[in-house]
Amino acid sequence: MEGRGIEGRAGCDAGPVTTDDLLRTVRASIAGRDPVDGREAASRARALAELDQLRSPFDRHADAVHVTGSGVVLGPEGVLLLRHRLLGIWVQPGGHLEPGETPWDAARRETAEETGLEVRLAGAGVPPPLLHLDVHGAAHGHTHLDLRYRLAVVGDPTPRPPSGESQEVAWYRSADALELADPGLRGLLVALEAAR
């Protein structure tokens, strides 16, 4: 693992951190996560094992297995879901990290890009709390170590996805979200509903 700098972005100005620092931070947040179900427990174990082996876990071009960041957007309207353009499944917005980006900043950026909403990280601190994680197969033979962070909308909650992004983006109440959502997200939705 090289020690090049990574800048904190998108309102998480903790200053530059090295890739090694980011790896330690991400690993600690995953290890400290209390899984909501068996799927998340298996994902936690797999993610920790992969992080111990991958040379560049934050670089999607370095290996088919890599870290991604997703935003779970919750509000009075419910939970925000979108239909994935390539896979046709209903998921939370998110995607690959840009060079020098943290997973939580990727979650915020990808959510804004995919939905047209202005969002902020809802958890306090740097890094913000890890809300959920899921390891799953993705398009192009990739495996995503998907780290999910809670986001809140700033301003108008009406999704306005730009052209080139999925146009199927909407708010869903708990029962409808549970019916639609990909299995990798259902455990979190059940846990969130139980905590209400």
UniProtKB/TrEMBL annotation:
SUPFAM superfamilies, per database record: Nudix (SSF55811)
Hydrolase in keyword set: yes
Pfam families (alphabetical): NUDIX
Residue stretches making up the Nudix hydrolase domain: 64-194
InterPro entries: Nudix_hydrolase (IPR020476), NUDIX_hydrolase-like_dom_sf (IPR015797), NUDIX_hydrolase_CS (IPR020084), NUDIX_hydrolase_dom (IPR000086)
Gene3D superfamilies listed in its UniProt record: Nucleoside Triphosphate Pyrophosphohydrolase
Keywords: Hydrolase
Domain of life: Bacteria
Cofactor(s) this protein cannot do without: Mg(2+)
Family per record: Belongs to the Nudix hydrolase family.
Protein name: NUDIX domain-containing protein
Organism: Acidiferrimicrobium australe
Highest classification ranks of the organism: Bacteria, Bacillati, Actinomycetota, Acidimicrobiia, Acidimicrobiales
